[in-house]
User: Fold these one by one.
Assistant:
Number 1:
Amino acid sequence: GAGVSQTPSNKVTEKGKYVELRCDPISGHTALYWYRQSLGQGPEFLIYFQGTGAADDSGLPNDRFFAVRPEGSVSTLKIQRTERGDSAVYLCASSLGTGPQETQYFGPGTRLLVL
Amino acid sequence: AQTVTQSQPEMSVQEAETVTLSCTYDTSESDYYLFWYKQPPSRQMILVIRQEAYKQQNATENRFSVNFQKAAKSFSLKISDSQLGDAAMYFCAYRSYGSQGNLIFGKGTKLSVKP
């Protein structure tokens, strides 16, 4: 089946604007993760969903960041009042279950540039 | 908190030769999983190999193998018979055994393969 997809592939916005980034996980995967990858760094965890609920949002940097997964499938990461420091690649991953042995399958990411 | 360190920002290998990428980690836990992910320019992270900390035997996947030294908290990746398609960023990652959530990544090593 299809892998994890993310839209848009690239997003350019102005400081202070609102953006939404979308993630379509692999069909049937119950767990969904968001990571942020800044230039020259490894991905950093933002938030994790099990089904519709956010099981762990400890990685969200501040209250400008919010994510939803209303039907337990597609997820949207929302960033309010964007800042230049939010520029990064936002990666989404999904896994079949929640156990530590489960493989996380990643999407190609959305590159966000805040001018 | 757990940390992952990759001390080699860049590595280079001749096609058909062998290269080893280094990774060390810090944890007080006894059970955990370790991973190597490959990230080509397309940005999509691909799982290369996984190691369970409770297993003494080093994991292997075709041309990829690891040298897992639990006491030293070291987890290196060996790529044999390097191919041009192996050129990518390689990330080492850690996941707690009791965790239902996130991976903790190192900063990555950029591998170049010379023809």
Note: The mean pLDDT of chain A is 94.
Number 2:
Amino acid sequence: AQSVTQPDIHITVSEGASLELRCNYSYGATPYLFWYVQSPGQGLQLLLKYFSGDTLVQGIKGFEAEFKRSQSSFNLRKPSVHWSDAAEYFCAVGSGYGKLTFGQGTILTVHP
Amino acid sequence: DTAVSQTPKYLVTQMGNDKSIKCEQNLGHDTMYWYKQDSKKFLKIMFSYNNKELIINETVPNRFSPKSPDKAHLNLHINSLELGDSAVYFCASSLLAGGGTDTQYFGPGTRLTVL
């Protein structure tokens, strides 16, 4: 069965600092990987996705993520965080059976 | 212009009542989903429909019944509400049936509180 682990429940960074959110997945075949962001009271918005090809994928809002098969990881990064990035971030793995499995989320707090 | 919309946004009700949540997407997508996000923020799929046909039915009590009158709408009806049903329910849609490999677009969520 597929699963996703986000080891960090809550991360706090200062505005302008770099950010890395961790995501580890478990899936038997080639994974389809996603990062979504949820702002308070809002639905989830797709940041980026990896299906195949280049293991470094670029997303919206200046985010990027790197797929590392050997580590079963898909970490999300941003070189310089803005206060508006404060939100909850969800990593997800998808299968061809139409099922998307989410991690438990990482809450990002940004200090001015 | 909202892509995926849900009504109501908030729903407060008593145990034992029956309630419905409506979802509509104007993206022309073939597949729609219902997810439940519990108090610990775990987001789990409940159902998915492709062109009005049920394709995913996770282990969900049969008090929950999805209904898709057309491919742009997927409503969720809940009978005999229980305290444990309190959660945020998200509707989503994707262009294709392979929702696990296709980008899903989420609605704003419906916060259900059962008293």
Note: Chain A has a mean pLDDT of 92.
